[in-house]
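User: quick one, fold this
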Amino acid sequence: MTNKVDYQMKLDQIRRELGYDFMSLAFAEPAEYDYVIRWKYVSGNTNDRYKRIVLQSGRGIAGIVFKTGKPFLLPSVQKDVKPDALFNYPITKMENLNSIGAVPMWNDARVAGVLLGGFRGERQVTPEMLRALEATARKGIGELNGKELLLS
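Assistant:
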């Protein structure tokens, strides 16, 4: 029997260590014709509405990070997102987040998940905080080894 890592416990620990109000981990799941991305584990959530968010590749924060394999920084939802574009970022509305950073979770040279951290109040995710989130993701979480490149 393999030693399954408790993603929830690890996510709670990372949120505490990095000081975010909210943190979540999204994974891709097979769907009828393609795959969808869902927030599977959350820490610091105010409700369970995140479970209803289903994103396509390239849609929403997780979808964008998943598709591009690049970090995503949204310092201020109020300043950086037009009100009519808020529907593109459902997690911000459901958890009342005002600032977000998200990074890809690599596994054997492919993006296998997305790690997101956010703040509800005035505090903003900075480029330095995004780099710390990325460094955490590169250490791997559970079955995700954090390796972006495989050298043969």
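User: anything notable?
Assistant: The mean pLDDT is 89.
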